[in-house]
Amino acid sequence: MLSESQLNAAQAESIQAELEQIVCRGRFAGINEIALDWACYHPEGATEVVLVVNGRIESHYKYWETIAELVTAGYAVFTYDHRGQGASQRMTQNPHKGYVEAFHYYSDDLHQLCQHELWPRQYQQTHLLCHSMGCCVAAHYLIAHAPHICSVAFCSPMFQIHSGKIPEFLAKQLVNSWAFCSRLCCHLFGGEPGYFLFGSNYKDKPFNNNLLSHSSARYQLFRALYQSRPELQLGSPTPQWVEEAVQACEGVLQHAHKIRLPILILEAGDDEIVDRRGIVAFTAAAQECRHHCIDGAKHELLIEADQFRQPTMQAILSFFAQNSAKAGLQH
């Protein structure tokens, strides 16, 4: 694993150039023919694959360090960008708006991706590695389709959105009311929805007091990527996105008991983006779920400081290996 002292722009470019030697890229049609960007990194001899499902505002290009480590461990890596973000097709005239018509379109897209792009490659085992919103998307997919997956690692899962100092019931009423007013205004006056609360277009936020990572090196590389590739940028969510996300989280917790495969939840101890109550509820409801808290870590475990990121990656790789071995014994 790379340490923060080794991370700089030149090193990042070198690793990304090596990954480009083993990558295959493409696009597929998601629900309602929205074009979604995907990438498959296949090292020689790989028989197992890790499907990476990223979070809101993200792109798979951001995950080069994690992809490199998975490839070094012998895994192929398959990943993609959700509708409305990253390198995938946007659905609003202002491409910075975080919008989705229905949250289940995300998990339906994932199902389409697996059916048409991933399963035909016939890897022996498939593991899921998901972050934040991607955990909610993947959980919906697992509940609805019960695919043949070996194991799942959820990092900082969005199973309940952090409402800050606002009581949960008031926050939910605010979300529903704002979303209703937004839809009504669009219907009466045309145009597209605005931002939720004090939202805005993408902003290059400084490292100081950020809610994502303690690692200045990794944080700056992530921001530099978005500055060099502005087409990847995404701003704040729309009211409808927030309403759909809240309902999706409730749905996951209601049906978590239907997921019948090994799950590892890695919680960031100082997370201010997602609410740990959702993680606790999911862990209690899921059939086979292991929960580990990375004390002191912020939300972005995969771009955190070494003291948080290294135990995160070690736990993920160990979990995948253990379940691959179990699957091999069962066959």
TrEMBL record:
<dbReference type="Pfam" id="PF12146">
    <property type="entry name" value="Hydrolase_4"/>
</dbReference>
<dbReference type="InterPro" id="IPR022742">
    <property type="entry name" value="Hydrolase_4"/>
</dbReference>
<keyword id="KW-0378">Hydrolase</keyword>
<feature type="domain" description="Serine aminopeptidase S33">
    <location>
        <begin position="48"/>
        <end position="306"/>
    </location>
</feature>
<dbReference type="InterPro" id="IPR029058">
    <property type="entry name" value="AB_hydrolase_fold"/>
</dbReference>
<dbReference type="InterPro" id="IPR051044">
    <property type="entry name" value="MAG_DAG_Lipase"/>
</dbReference>
<dbReference type="GO" id="GO:0016787">
    <property type="term" value="F:hydrolase activity"/>
</dbReference>
<protein>
    <submittedName>
        <fullName>Alpha/beta fold hydrolase</fullName>
    </submittedName>
</protein>
